[in-house]
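User: I've been going back and forth on whether these two constructs are worth ordering. Before I decide, could you fold them both?

Assistant: Sure. I'll take them in the order you sent them. The first construct and its structure tokens:
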Amino acid sequence: MYCKAWKYSVSSNHSLFEEAYGRNGEWFKFFESCDEFLGQEIMRSAEGTFYLVLEKWISIEDYEHFLSSNRDAFEAISSNTESLYEEKLNLGSYTVLQ
């Protein structure tokens, strides 16, 4: 399994951020349209200022193929949601060990 990890800095609009990135949010629904998307986890820091979002995919190839095939939709959602956070940090790509 392949996993992308993102850290978001959010000082306000917590409910809007959680709505957009949560289980019924715009991002989840976008990724869910792909059979190779295995789900995501969203976690808020104890301080309440950072979120960790983990996207789970069958493989890196599936992730990259989906993004390249849906580039316009991805960029539209990115544009719609970038005002919900101050900073977005790519924490890397991981292989899940089982």
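The second construct, handled the same way:
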Amino acid sequence: MTESYEPASFRDRDARIFQADGRIFRALSPQGLEDWTRLSGSRFFQSFSQRGSIVGTRRADDEPQRLAALGDGWAAALEHDRIPFISYPYEWSFSMLKDAALLHLDLILAALAEGQILKDATAYNIQFVGARPVFIDVASFEKLPAGEPWHGYRQFCQLFLYPLLLQAYKDAAFQPWLRGSLEGIDPRDMNALMSARDLLRAGVLAHVKLQAGAQERFGSTSRNVRADLKSAGFSAGLIKANVSRLRKLIAGLEWKRTSSTWAGYADANSYAAEDADRKARFVRTAASASRRGLVWDLGGNTGRFSRIAAEHADHVVTVDADPLAIERLYRELRKDGPANILPIIGNVADPSPGLGWRGLERLPLARRGTPDLILALALIHHVVITANVPLAEFVDWLAGLGGELVIEFVTKQDEMVKTLLRNKDDQYADYDQAYFESCLEKHYRIGARETIQSGSRTLYHAIPRP
């Protein structure tokens, strides 16, 4: 039996997450056990858990054995259902972050009704199972402290509200901000981004301007602000009113962008109908060769081929650099499914790195799961020509991820490649089909291939060499 600590647990003093034998556990301190006993007996916890909005959690059936391996100081061990694939807020689309925010606020309102509250408000306490947000940090619930305010308010603003306001009001992507700081957007930075006219927009004055001013006044004060607030006599009713107003504000936010470079690619590409059907058949044949646990669809756009793979896989992760393409896919999945596709925003040429303490709190994309099959369709020319990644390096990276590969090579005779090269010097001598095949064959044997699009595109099903 082996134990390994989960990076996300570094900062929680009352609980520690660890993996053992392919299972996910949470060790609790005596205080953590007291909070869990109260939580597990509450009506709201049972309700949210039954509908899948709180991760499935129970006392570990082999608890003494798990606690003995951890040493002294731990009072209980819980076991969680495993999240199929971990994603982070800087990889979510607008509606994903919005749905996560609404779930967080709904949990607070339900907890308040039973004398409990969430002690923090980080977006990292929520994960997605397909297009469904799931709250995962059951140790964040505690008994509502008498007379104290909601201490997670500022954190909620920084990690949920401000990113949503930024995209809804300014049409500016929030993902780089959240990737740049795990603490989210600072009130003073958010205030600097808002114009005088923005003060008339819902939420800006109350939650941005006033909070930035409070930070200026109290940020370096020697006063015990928390004690001052407690003496003012906050009640559950005041917290409920604030949370309810935030929920109404966030529910009304919309991202109104309707076009982007690649969001309409599936409808506007130059594939003939016959070639599009042949490509779909090729992918289906490769995907159906065996049941896959995890499939990655890199450059998956609005998910046509992710859906094909999902018919033959437990879980599919669709990665695309275009936020609008992922936004549209998420909305479609939320409405019609399938439930086993997770869409995330990511640039293959600049994938999510390790972040946080020692670079381990938020893991790099490649360390969050080993795909059994990777789809890389109509992607390689963007990586090599647009992002200037050497072709051999890209193939090496794909091989390092593990699993089989379905990849499409697009030659320089293709109209899309001609467009990419139109305003560039052609310094891409390595972008050659024969050289590509030699790079591929270093790591894989080619199980099948098919040429489409009047000979300018070739599909390969590559199987890793033993």
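Notes on the second construct follow. Residues 1-9 have pLDDT under 50 and may be disordered. The radius of gyration is 24 Å.
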